[in-house]
Amino acid sequence: AATQIRQSRPMAISPGIRPEPGEIAIGRGWRICVAAPRSAQVVTAVDDLAAFFKNSMKVRLEVVWSSSARPAPKTITLTQGKTLPDGPTKPAGYRFVAEKDGIHIHGYDPCGVLRGVWYLEDQLKLRGGPLVKPDARTRQPLYRPRATCARSPRP
């Protein structure tokens, strides 16, 4: 199956945006650490996230691929697997944890990593800048993803 790539125009950061008490400000010194195995979907997720921060948030994040990467301060860590406590139990599911010193996105599979990255991007867009509230949640589809094809009936 082909990976869907979301392309969006760079957004304008809200002028004068300041972090509220307890919010996580992503900026200089932050990086993306990838422990998830390389796959088309994970590479797409990493490239999309780095481009999103550069173009929309005006923040350049270093990308580090390391199979031994663990959540660390000032790091967005991307991992993948089926055995995370409180983690997803279905394909395309993910666990998102944002704490004051870092963000961890754990996908059940490569699609879960991609969906977790999109969730982070959506939160940043809603906030209007590189700020996110502390959060911990597991999300997964209720139904199996399926492909549909719409065709016009023949006369």
Structure description:
This protein has 155 residues and is of the alpha/beta class. It is 23% helix and 23% strand. The chain is built from two helices and eight strands, in the order ββαββββαββ. The protein has helices at 40-57, 110-127; strands spanning 24-25, 31-34, 62-65, 75-80, 94-99, 102-107, 131-132, 135-139. The strands form two sheets. Strands 3-2-4-6-5-8 form a six-stranded mixed β-sheet, covered by helices on one side. It has a two-stranded antiparallel ribbon with strand order 1-7. A hairpin with a 2-residue loop joins strand 5 and strand 6 (102-107). Helix 1 (40-57) runs parallel beside helix 2. The radius of gyration is 16 Å and the shape is globular. The two termini are 31 Å apart. The relative contact order is 0.21. The model has no long low-confidence stretch (mean pLDDT 88).
Mean pLDDT: 88
Note the main sheet.
6 strands, mixed
Question: How are strands sequenced across the largest beta sheet?
Answer: 3-2-4-6-5-8
**Tally of helical runs:** 2
Please, what is the oligomeric state? single chain
Residues in helices, as a percent range: 10-25%
What class do helices, strands and sheet pairing give? alpha/beta
Order of helices and strands: EEHEEEEHEE
Q: What percent strand?
A: 15-25%
**C-alpha Rg, in Å?**
16 Å
Cα distance spanning the termini: 31 Å
Number of strands: 8
Unreliable spans are none
Which features characterize this protein?
155 residues, alpha/beta, 6-stranded mixed sheet, two-stranded antiparallel ribbon, 23% strand
